Amino acid sequence: MKDFSVRACCNRAESGLLVGRWISGHDSAVVLAVIHYPFIPGQVKQYIQQMQAQSGVELTVLGSWSLPKEGQESMESFLRDLSTIFPQQRWLQVSRQMGKMGFICEVVNRNQNGQETQQEAKKQNDEEEEKVIFVHYEQRKVMLSQLHPTESGDPDLNTEPPSELKQVFQTVARSQPLFFLDRYDDGPLKSTHWQSEGREASIIVELLKQASVPLCVLISWLLALWTWLCSIRIFSLYPLRFLSSKLSTCVQISYRTEHMRTLSSPKPAIEHKQFMRKGNILVSFLVDVGLGVLLMSWLYRDDHIATLANMLMPAADHVAKELEELLQWLMGAPAGLKMNRALDQVLGRFFLYHIHLWISYIHLMSPFIEGILWYGGLSACLGLTFALSLLSDMVALLTFHIYCFYVYGARLYCLKIYGLSSLWRLFRGKKWNVLRQRVDSCSYDVDQLFIGTLLFTILLFLLPTTALYYLVFTLLRLVVVLFQGVLHLSVDFINSFPLFAMGLRLFRPYRLAEGVKFQVLCEEPGTALHLLMEINPLKCSTVVQLYRTPTYSCYPRDSWAALVKKLFVGELIYPWRHKSTKVD
Question: Secretion signal: which residues (predicted)?
């Protein structure tokens, strides 16, 4: 038989009644509190019934606890006689001897005839009648902890009855109303438990609780107003809807709106997962805003915005100059390669003209760049993620000419690759069946083969020139995509990383329990075995995996093999964040 007793309760508590619960299906009992003498048995029964109604736990009087003191020699016999007032199939008589740390437990069993038999939980005459093990636990830690079950792929295991350990955790967690009674109350009953020294109260916490109600109402009203503004018909038109789904700033605004709607919800977080989700969102939002305020204070201190604006134009001119030199190199004999001069000159002049247009546009916008940066820096007060999202959109706009170069080169290269593959099937007497999505045999006449040969020769000799331009502009595009990917990953990390859960794991590791371990606390001859139950916390990797906030994915939707295939055949690669792709 195992008895889960409170370490700080039964060791120093005065004599009284043990209140707890028998674990169904196991030969175990959980001690939750000790009610001290003097008491009236009728009031004890009424109090236990009230606690059962409030907590939903089958509380009962498990037995008696006796701590010997001078002048209280008759207390033990008095507590033993209480087994007739609180009829139980088993009555635990736990006592502690002077000068010993261990307990002696006598189990009084009641048979069907109402007769009582005593069994001592110790060895007598080299015989062990019933072995009692005391498992001491920290009641506060067990009450606040959440025992995480082991993940199993078998769905039938979830239908099994809860284990003994899980029932112990659930019993202590649901028995919070029992801990509201302490020794300082003026009621007729006095009890000892983990809060028996008095409950701590914080005026600041109470004021925050009172102020949270109107704050949630205000946030809900602002969110309703924002939702109404976003639902105006003009914002649902295709161009605006398309831009809002592709711009990182708009995606982050919708993401934070959903977060604020979750935090301002009047429904309390009943389940542990909902509570942890709200906590992670709140801490992530506060950290995000704090980092954004720090960034904003740096930007508007010592005129850093003007410095950035003055550096932007020379940087744009330098990039344009480097691109022009690169195009001049490609229009010659790059790396000693023999290029098609006519096509090389056409492509080079075409791209040079685009660079000239882009530089003219940048110089036209130069008087407004400082104002754009000044007002854009104000977005940092909403959080660092807003500033990073806005930076990603600005990089996309400033490198739009590189994106155009990449699209032109990719489309031209893709056209030649698919043309060559189609003409190669013509030489082999095959064609692509569009309806059946397969390659079928086909017979061609001499004219078709002659024209196919001419086209195949032209495309094949023009392919190196096109491939070289495509390769250069693809590498430039990948550099921009890599930089935007780092920004998107940073935003996704701030939004999804479970800071609240990780803080609990580091500073209150018992709150997230993976299991328990036992340590021998006391083993004296003539007394029961005493074990100390300690909580094993979850691993940090498991905490991140379980409590990571669902976010809109900013990772590549294709595998590395599919990405390399797209680059080889010339398909476009978009680094945009897809709002419809939500990962958990």
Answer: none
